[in-house]
Specification:
The complex is a heterodimer of chains A (313) and B (267). With 313 residues, chain A is α/β, with parallel strands linked by helices. Chain A has eleven helices and 14 strands. In chain A, helix 3 crosses helix 4. Chain B has 267 residues and is mainly alpha-helical. The chains are: A alpha/beta (313), B mainly alpha (267).
Chain lengths: 313, 267
C-alpha cells in the first residue's frame, strides 16, 4: 500500500542531541492526522525532514511512496507546507508573491490567475490581492501563508503549529480551512502542541515524546477506551446509614462510596445503565441535586501516556 | 541514454528556476526601493565632480572613477548582504525552500540579481560620466580606454558581490554580512594592501589592489597604493594578473557561498 506519508526508523541527531529516535509512521491518503507532543519532542524536525529542509541522520521518509532524500523536487511538487511562522515578503503583494510560486510550480498564467482567485477567496483575502503584505494582520499573513501552501493544489498538506499566535477568530478560520481541505481529499498532517486544537479537526493522533512515538490512535478509540465509569451524585442532605445500604440493592451499581451529601459510584459506563441508576435512585426517594458522569478529557489520556510534567498546552 | 536525457531536462528545469529566482529577487530590490536609491547615488555623485573641472577629459574621468570603488562596495553590500542570510534570518526560507527547486538554483538566482543590480549601477555611473565628458570636452574627447575601464569595473563588481555573498552564506544576521562586506572592500583589504606595500611586497593577490586598474587603464594620475607615498613603495597592478585575481575571487566567492548555503540548516 502506498501511503501519503511514511517514515521508516527516522533518526535525526544534532551533535549529541537525538531529536528523532527511530520514528516510523504510516499515514493513509485522505487522513487528517494530529502530530502532538510537548515542545522539543521532535515535531518540527520530522516536518523539516519531510519537506527536505534537513536530512535525516538515518532512516527514510516517503511522500506518496517517493523517497524525499533522493527525489526531493519530485516529492515537493505534491506537498504544501506551512512550517512554524514563516517570514513573509512584506514589501510584496499577495499577487506578486503567489505569481512567483505559481511559476516555480510551472503553472501557466491562466492557471495562476484562476488559482489566485480561488485560494485568496478561500482564505478571505480577495480584496487584498494587490495590497502590500506588510500591512496585513498576523491572522491575515497566516491565511496568506496557507494560500501559498495550497496554491499548487498539493495532495499532502503539512502544517506546523498553524494557529500559533492567532486570536480565537483566526484559530477558527484556520480550523475551518483545514476541514475544508480535508473534505477535498487532501491528506493533512497537523503538528501542534495544542491537544485541544488537534482534537477539534483530526481523526487520528500521533503522540510524540523525546523523539519517539508513544501512541498512534484514532481519537474515537481513545475516547471509547477512556470512557468514564464514575458518577458523582450530590444530594440535598447527608445520607443516613439505611439510605447508604439501600444503594447496594441497585444491581447496576458496581461500587458506591458515600461521604456526607456526596455519593461516588462506579458502573459499566453505558449511557442506558446511567439512566437506569438515576431512575432507581429517584424512585427510592433520594433527593438528587446534581448527577455528573465524570468526563475523561483527551488531556487526561495525554498525561497518562506522557507523564504529569509534560505540558499539554 | 535515458539518464542523460533526464539530466539535461533536470538542468534546464533548474536553469529556469534560477531565472525565476533572479527575476523575483530583482522585483524585491525594486519594491524595496534599493535599486532606486542606489541608482540616484550613481547618477548624482558624478555631478559633484563639476565642482572642479580639470583641463582634459582623461583627468576628469580619472577623478570621477575614484568613486566607482565606493559605489561598487555599496551596491555589492546592499544587494548581496542579505541575499542568503536574510532567507534564514527572516525565515522566508521556510516558504521558499520546500518547493520543487534546488536550493542552489534559488541562491544562484539571487547572485545573478545582485550582479545585475551592480552592473546597472556601474553602467549608470559610466553613462553619466560619459555624458559629462561629451558636454564638457566634446564627443571626440571621450578616452578610448573608458570602455576597457568599464569592463574591468564590471569584472571587479562580480568579485565584490562574490565576497559579500560568501559572508551572507555563513552569517546569521544580514546586517553583519552587509557591514562586513562593505568594510572588507573599503577598509580591510585596502589596509592589508597598504601594509604589504610599506614592506615592499606587491599585494597583487588583493582584489581591491587589482581594482586600481579601473582608473589606471584610463591613464594620467597613475595608481598609488596605500594611504600615501610616505607609507611605502608604490606599485601598479598589471592588467593580466589583476583580471585573473578578480576572476579568482569571483569564482571562489560564488562556489563557496553556494556550498555553504546549500549545507546550512534552516533553524
Amino acid at each position: 500500500m502506498e501511503y501519503a506519508i511514511e517514515t521508516k526508523n527516522l533518526v535525526k541527531r544534532f551533535n549529541h542531541f537525538t531529536a528523532l529516535d527511530g520514528i516510523s509512521l504510516q499515514i493513509e491518503k485522505g487522513d487528517i492526522i494530529g502530530y502532538v507532543g510537548p515542545n522539543g519532542a521532535g515535531k518540527t524536525t520530522t516536518i523539516k525532514i519531510l519537506t527536505t529542509l534537513i536530512n535525516p541522520t538515518s532512516g527514510f521518509a516517503y511522500i506518496n511512496g517517493i523517497d524525499v532524500s533522493k527525489r526531493s523536487t519530485e516529492t515537493l511538487r505534491d506537498i504544501g507546507a506551512l512550517i512554524e511562522v514563516p517570514g513573509i515578503y512584506d514589501y510584496l503583494t499577495p499577487n506578486e508573491m503567489l505569481t512567483y510560486f505559481g511559476k516555480v510550480y510551472r503553472m501557466n498564467n491562466d492557471e495562476i490567475k484562476r488559482r489566485m482567485k480561488e485560494t485568496l477567496g478561500l482564505v478571505r483575502l480577495s480584496d487584498w490581492e494587490n495590497k502590500k503584505i506588510g500591512s496585513f494582520s498576523t491572522g491575515m499573513q497566516r491565511r496568506l501563508a496557507i494560500a501559498r501552501a495550497i496554491f499548487h493544489n498539493p495532495n499532502v498538506l503539512i502544517l506546523d503549529e498553524p494557529v500559533l499566535g492567532l486570536d480565537p477568530k483566526g484559530i477558527k478560520d484556520i480550523r475551518e480551512l483545514m476541514r475544508y481541505f480535508n473534505s477535498q481529499g487532501i491528506t493533512i498532517f497537523l503538528s501542534s502542541h495544542l491537544l485541544s486544537e488537534v482534537a477539534e479537526v483530526c481523526t487520528k493522533i500521533i503522540f510524540l515524546d523525546e523523539g519517539r512515538v508513544t501512541a498512534f490512535e484514532a481519537i474515537e478509540d481513545i475516547i471509547n477506551k477512556n470512557k468514564s465509569t464514575e458518577i458523582t451524585i450530590k444530594l440535598l442532605k447527608s445520607l443516613s446509614e439505611e439510605e447508604v445500604n439501600k444503594l447496594s440493592s441497585i444491581e447496576q451499581i458496581k461500587t458506591a462510596k458515600a461521604e456526607n451529601d456526596t455519593i461516588r459510584i462506579t458502573f459499566d459506563g453505558k449511557p442506558e445503565t446511567s439512566y437506569q441508576i438515576l431512575s432507581r435512585m429517584i424512585s427510592f426517594g433520594y433527593e438528587i441535586v446534581t448527577y455528573n458522569i465524570e468526563v475523561t478529557e483527551l488531556e487526561d489520556y495525554y498525561i497518562s501516556i506522557m507523564g504529569d510534567e509534560k505540558g499539554v498546552n | 541514454m535515458a539518464s542523460m536525457a533526464q539530466a539535461i531536462s533536470g538542468s534546464k528545469r533548474e536553469l529556469y528556476n534560477t531565472y525565476l529566482s533572479a527575476m523575483f529577487e530583482l522585483k524585491k530590490h525594486l519594491k524595496r526601493r534599493r535599486l532606486l536609491i542606489i541608482a540616484a547615488i550613481a547618477i548624482l555623485v558624478p555631478l559633484l565632480f563639476y565642482i572642479s573641472i580639470p583641463d582634459t577629459a582623461t583627468q576628469f574621468a580619472t577623478t570621477s572613477l575614484n568613486f566607482i570603488n565606493v559605489l561598487i562596495a555599496i551596491t555589492a553590500a546592499m544587494f548581496g548582504g542579505d541575499a542568503i542570510s536574510g532567507e534564514f534570518e527572516k525565515k522566508t526560507a521556510l516558504m521558499s525552500f520546500p518547493t520543487p527547486q534546488k536550493r542552489v538554483s534559488i541562491m544562484a538566482g539571487k547572485y545573478i540579481a545582485a550582479l545585475e543590480s551592480t552592473f546597472i549601477m556601474v553602467l549608470l555611473f559610466y553613462g553619466v560620466m560619459t555624458l559629462q565628458i561629451i558636454q564638457l570636452y566634446g564627443t571626440t574627447a571621450i578616452p578610448v580606454e573608458l570602455w576597457q575601464s568599464m569592463l574591468i569595473a564590471i569584472l571587479y563588481s562580480t568579485s565584490a558581490v562574490s565576497i559579500v555573498f560568501l559572508y551572507s552564506s555563513f552569517f546569521k544576521r544580514s546586517i553583519s554580512a552587509t557591514i562586513l562586506g562593505f568594510v572588507t572592500l573599503m577598509m580591510i583589504l585596502p589596509i592589508i594592501s597598504a601594509v604589504l606595500s610599506t614592506t615592499e611586497v606587491e599585494p597583487w593577490f588583493i582584489v581591491t589592489y587589482s581594482a586600481g586598474l579601473i582608473s589606471n587603464i584610463v591613464g594620467e594620475g597613475g595608481f598609488m597604493m596605500g594611504p600615501g607615498r610616505a607609507f611605502g613603495a608604490a606599485f601598479e597592478p598589471s592588467l593580466g594578473t589583476g583580471l585573473i585575481v578578480m576572476f579568482t575571487y569571483t569564482i571562489i566567492g560564488f562556489i563557496g557561498s553556494m556550498a555553504i548555503a546549500n549545507r546550512r540548516n534552516v533553524e
